[in-house]
Amino acid sequence: MAAYDYDEPSATHRQASSDAPSQEPGYDPNHVPDSVKTFVVHLYRHIREKNVYEIHQMYETSFQGISERFFKDTPWPSVDAVAPFVDKDHVFCLLYREMWFRHLYARLQPTLKQRIDSWDNYCSLFQVVLHGVVNMQLPNQWLWDMVDEFVYQFQSFCQYRAKMKNKTEQEIALLRQFDQAWNVYGVLNFLQALVEKSAIIQILEQEKEGLEQFTATDGYDYSGGSNVLKVLGYFSMVGLLRVHCLLGDYHTGLKCLQPIDITQQGVYVSVIGSHITTIYHYGFANLMLRRYDAFDFMSCNNVNKMRLKCKCWYVEAIREFNKILLYIYKTKQYHQKSPQYEQILKKNEQMYALLAISLSLCPQVKLVEETVNSQLREKYGEKMIRMQRYDDEAFTIYDELFSYACPKFITPSAPSFEEPLVNYNQDAYRLQLKLFLYEVKQQQLLSGVRTFLKVYSSISLGNLGKYMEVDESKLRTILLTYKHKTHSVDNDGKTISNADVDFYMDDDWVYVADSKPPKRYGDYFLRQIVKLEAAINDLDRIKLD
User: Fold this and answer.
1) Cα(358)–Cα(11) distance, rounded to whole angstroms?
2) pTM value?
3) Which pLDDT tens digit goes with each residue over 290-340?
4) 372 with 327: CB under 8 angstroms?
5) Angle CA(43)–CA(194)–CA(410) in degrees, nearest 5?
6) Rounded CA gap, 312 and 41, in Å?
């Protein structure tokens, strides 16, 4: 098993080590610097005025700047200290505490009591959104960060709770007392409630009929209403996908995301973190489903009587990883000053690893853009060649890449408080790795089939069986498995092949279809045009004497 630190830094921008204290000595939670007073007063005013542009500027720039200058190693002032400057507004104080805890998780290591307090704050905040009257507009970035941080803190709490071996008696007593804090059902219920209360699924359906303009306005309400519930409901569908992936329930995760058409531009692309998180978990879920869904095969010697109905999950994963990696390649320079830049780069590397796995299990290089393919060969070219051998070294590489690129799986159940106390924080990860490597071993026989089919245009089952050293009955099973794993159903219900080598059977013969992928010249010429323009610009800057 690959040796990786299984503790994930925050989904936004984690900087503190796990050994950092929860607060520095001498920290006074009641001391409010003038810059903080100015910040909260202006932010409160802009929220009341629904000035989304100024709110976004203060949230993205001012908050980060003040944090870097005054609170690099300490929490912000307590909510009780700043409340008098904002008329003790209940909703604003909940929003401030949400930012306070997010900063604490990013810069320091929260205590168990602080983890529980953060859960209570999220409960209060979401209760206000679900059952109160929220008449404000907040930037999509902030609303996405709420959902993203909510899921991250749930994941972090599950990992923390699963390390029982070195827990103190006080920590165990708190875990027993607050056993409902960050309960998996509570987390799922809040996210689902936001989806249902916002009626976002109906809104997206109406948008297809031209009755709504949710995507066109990026979720903002320009008629004077509020965008908070609708956009939180929208992002909660992505949050549900992520939670179910952490639990290993990929079918349910994809079902939760189904109302969002990721083949089209949507509100999820308006925030880079949301865009990457959506495609990363969507692609990973497709990768892990292994195309076992909705499969029906009528066994018959005549190929015309074959009926295949399956979803080619690997192909879907490859297609979406390719698109997001190309997008990051083109736009990452615009996010260099963003606090999320390091996380963007990390997810970029993880998705290249997942793409390498997908292409090794289902060779579909024709689906990958030349730019992405070039980057992939540079990063994993040698490893992908070795992964095709399916020997012990290949399985070690699969293990390594999966361990590096997979989500940080969690065990959501409460721990056993009986002695001896044991750590179980890696149990879920080991189970998912075991299932994945089992699928890789199944691919070993398919690799042999592909190798022989590339050599022949037609071959009898008897000869192919001799070469593969299997009997005819087992060979038919292998060939049907190959068909199953390399066919998919398009949007029109038509069965299509996604294999680099396809074949059909007639009686006791296997005929290899002659399919040469069309050459694509567009990418080559576009790259040359860019190089030529760069050369012309360089020449224009040269001053001749």
Assistant:
1) 24
2) 0.81
3) 643 322 232 333 333 332 333 356 678 888 899 999 989 888 888 877 778
4) no
5) 100
6) 54
